[in-house]
């Protein structure tokens, strides 16, 4: 964590950028990154010089040993005045950044231990670096602040960049947006990466998953001597116990792919500031067929760990998609293709934690079901659903985290529903008490302990048989409901009992008066001047009656006679081969009293939550014997008739009361 003074310094600089005309937060971060990069190159050169002085050995210089070359070093230009500084950076320093990537390719500087290799791929992405700070006062302030940053402390400089990235408050294109830090940290802890692993984010963005993994390893592998406390009491971890793995960490452990060069620059700098100089941050669309040409080894069976929040939206041209990925799931949807790609990229025994929109878990298309069937051929460890506001202000969409291991097979899946992630709903996030994230992580780790006890409406194991019985649906609301079907009573699907159709009239056609009753999603019956049904029927709303992202049904109705129904109403009429009216009356009574446990969990959608007639037909209900059915339906319908009678009597009494008041007013 940063000291208050450092945060204040960064905030003041941020304000200067905005008042100086640079209002895009990503541009601000880029410009600060260039300056950090310039200073870190000089710091790296100084370390190499000191080492050479001790050993007497020569070294590969980053800066030419000429007066002009040495003037490119931070220590020799950071004190310049505004106008001189602007000209020097624009005409000399930034063009030199561009040459670094060319040098590594043209001069073969990628050899073991070379200075260029220590830069990783960041020099390559600096080739189009440009100075966009026009205001000389802002530029001087920026250089002064970067000069004062404690960039020699890998732990602190990582926090600096995290704080800068936290100021990204606008979503990018193609579904890009920043994953909240607490969600990243939870996913990393669930996977528990090891210092020998090879770790990837196939849509890395700002490299949040990779950088936070490095922080996780530093915390886990710091001795008492390698842990220190700053003046504000914040703990810092040096990761001193990682020294045996340092070469692997710097060169081979971390891989990130993206096709946005701005993100590649930002993520490369993020990794450098987290102490990883040679992270493999690479330009590549992970789903494109060209990945087989550019990165054939990494494209399949390569990574030990994948941590990802792939793009949620968008469709791709199948002609450009990796054919092997399409072999797992035939679709154009990026969220499905990314999951398939991740599965292919993992080694046998490799682990992944993936954020997915809820549609990946509950979508009913052939491609959705095909993907889930493929996942079940491996080990789906857990499905952890998140509140729909987690990704605000970027998006309000229900999501979940899938934890999987490649290989083996699934016999049961652990489900957990997070209702409180520690932050409030709304665009302006406020931290609140009661976060369930730590509990979810701890229970996941202890789920196989003998002491583990499920809480049926919160977390439990779901067998493969139950998932297959629900036609490969992974929807958490189906499995995490506080209801069990009664034992010993046969179950039937609704479409085995009923013909299911929809109403014929738009809900807006409701009238204050009319010849026929009109059933809408309202609890009250409306009126209209036409009817499409003349029978006994159960009417069930297909759309949620409450707010965005929330599933609910206000009421369902039983009807006997002529009526009309809105197009958002499912109308269930008894099949011709079933003549027993006690069945329809019983089913109405059962669904009315169990709608929240039986109907609502099958409502789906990340924003507009709804049922459809096909999904409704698949819902199973218990069908007891005729005597019990009649007793239940008579109790419910009898009480409803009594309520209607009392309402009529109450209306008459109210009308009489108004008449009495009117007569009193006329008398006096």
Q: How is this fold's topology laid out?
A:
Elements: H1 4-19, H2 25-55, H3 67-70, H4 74-77, H5 82-106, H6 115-118, H7 122-125, H8 136-148, H9 154-165, H10 181-191, E1 199-201, H11 208-220, E2 227-229, E3 235-237, H12 246-253, E4 254-258, H13 261-273, E5 280-283, H14 291-294, E6 303-308, H15 323-328, H16 334-345, E7 346-357, H17 358-362, H18 366-376, E8 379-386, E9 399-405, E10 412-417, H19 437-446, E11 459-463, H20 464-469, H21 476-479, E12 491-493, H22 494-497, E13 498-502, E14 516-519, E15 526-528, E16 533-541, E17 557-565, E18 569-574, H23 581-599, H24 613-618, E19 620-622, H25 626-667
Parallel strand pairs: 1-4, 1-6, 4-5, 6-7, 8-10, 14-17
Antiparallel strand pairs: 2-3, 7-9, 8-9, 10-11, 12-19, 13-18, 14-15, 16-17, 16-18
Helix pairs in contact: 1-8, 2-8, 2-13, 5-8, 9-13, 10-11, 10-19, 16-18, 23-25
Descriptive account of the structure:
The protein starts with a helix and ends with a helix. Strand 2 (227-229) and strand 3 (235-237) form a beta hairpin. A nine-stranded mixed sheet has the order 5-4-1-6-7-9-8-10-11. The protein has a six-stranded mixed sheet with strand order 13-18-16-17-14-15. The longest helix has 42 residues, at 626-667. The protein is elongated and about 105 Å long. The chain has 25 helices and 19 strands. Helix 2 crosses helix 8 and helix 16 runs parallel beside helix 18 (366-376). Mean pLDDT is 87; it is low at 103-118 and 170-176. With 668 residues, the chain is of the alpha/beta class. Helix content is 43%, strand content 16%.
């Amino acid at each position: 964590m940063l000291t208050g003074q450092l945060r204040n310094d960064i905030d003041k600089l941020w304000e200067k950028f905005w008042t100086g005309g640079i209002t895009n937060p990503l541009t601000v971060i880029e410009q600060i990154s260039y300056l950090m990069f310039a200073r870190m190159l000089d710091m790296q050169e100084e370390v190499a010089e000191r080492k050479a002085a001790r050993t007497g050995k020569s070294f590969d210089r980053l800066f030419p040993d000429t007066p002009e070359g040495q003037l490119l070093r931070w220590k020799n230009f950071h004190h310049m005045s505004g106008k001189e500084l602007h000209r020097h950076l624009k005409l000399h320093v930034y063009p030199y950044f561009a040459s670094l990537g060319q040098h590594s390719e043209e001069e073969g500087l990628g050899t073991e231990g070379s200075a260029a290799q220590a830069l990783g791929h960041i020099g390559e992405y600096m080739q189009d670096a440009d100075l966009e700070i026009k205001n000389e006062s802002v530029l001087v302030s920026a250089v002064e602040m970067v000069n004062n940053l404690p960039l020699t402390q890998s732990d602190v400089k990582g926090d600096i960049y995290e704080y800068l990235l936290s100021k990204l408050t606008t979503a990018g294109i193609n579904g890009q947006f920043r994953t909240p830090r607490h969600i990243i940290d939870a996913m990393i802890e669930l996977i528990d990466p090891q210092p020998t692993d090879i770790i990837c984010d196939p849509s890395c963005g700002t490299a949040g998953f990779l950088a936070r993994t490095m922080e996780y390893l530093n915390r886990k592998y710091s001795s008492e001597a390698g842990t220190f406390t700053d003046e504000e009491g914040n703990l810092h971890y040096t990761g001193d116990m990682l020294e045996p793995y340092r070469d692997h960490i710097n060169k081979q452990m971390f891989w990130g792919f993206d096709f946005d060069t701005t993100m590649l620059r930002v993520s490369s700098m993020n990794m450098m500031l987290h102490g990883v100089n040679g992270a493999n941050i690479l330009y590549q669309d992970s789903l494109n067929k060209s990945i087989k040409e550019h990165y054939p080894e990494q494209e399949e069976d390569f990574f030990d760990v994948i941590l990802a929040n792939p793009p949620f939206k968008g469709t791709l041209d199948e002609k450009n998609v990796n054919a092997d990925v399409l072999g797992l799931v035939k679709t154009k949807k990026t969220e499905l293709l990314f999951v398939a790609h991740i599965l292919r990229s993992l080694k046998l025994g490799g682990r992944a934690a993936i954020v997915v929109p809820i549609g990946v878990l509950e979508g009913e298309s052939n491609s959705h079901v095909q993907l889930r069937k493929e996942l079940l051929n491996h080990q789906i460890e857990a499905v952890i659903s998140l509140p729909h506001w987690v990704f605000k202000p970027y998006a309000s969409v229900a999501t979940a985290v899938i934890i999987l291991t490649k290989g083996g097979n699934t016999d049961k899946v652990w489900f957990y529903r997070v209702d409180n992630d520690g932050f409030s709903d709304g665009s302006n996030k406020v931290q609140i008490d009661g976060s369930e994230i730590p509990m979810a992580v701890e229970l996941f780790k202890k789920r196989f302990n003998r002491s583990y006890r499920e809480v049926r409406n919160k977390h439990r194991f779901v067998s493969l048989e139950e998932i297959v019985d629900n036609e490969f649906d992974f929807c958490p609301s189906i499995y995490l409901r506080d209801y069990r079907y009664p034992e010993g009573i046969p179950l039937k699907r609704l479409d085995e009992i009923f013909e299911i159709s929809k109403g014929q009239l738009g809900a807006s056609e409701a009238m204050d008066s009319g010849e026929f009753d009109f059933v809408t999603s309202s609890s009250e019956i409306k009126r209209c001047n036409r009817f499409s049904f003349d029978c006994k029927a159960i009417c069930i709303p297909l759309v949620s009656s409450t707010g965005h992202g929330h599933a609910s049904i206000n009421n369902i109705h039983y009807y006997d006679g002529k009526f009309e129904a809105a197009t958002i109403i499912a109308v269930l009429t008894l099949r011709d081969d079933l003549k027993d009216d006690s069945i329809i009356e019983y089913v109405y009574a059962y669904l009315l009293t169990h709608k929240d446990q039986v109907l609502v969990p099958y409502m789906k959608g990340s924003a507009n939550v709804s049922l459809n007639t096909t999904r409704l037909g698949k819902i199973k209900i218990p069908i007891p014997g005729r005597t019990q059915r009649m007793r239940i339906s008579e109790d419910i319908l009898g009480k409803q008739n009594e309520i209607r009678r009392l309402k009529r009597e109450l209306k008459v009494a109210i009308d009489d009361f108004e008449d009495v008041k009117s007569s009193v007013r006329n008398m006096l």
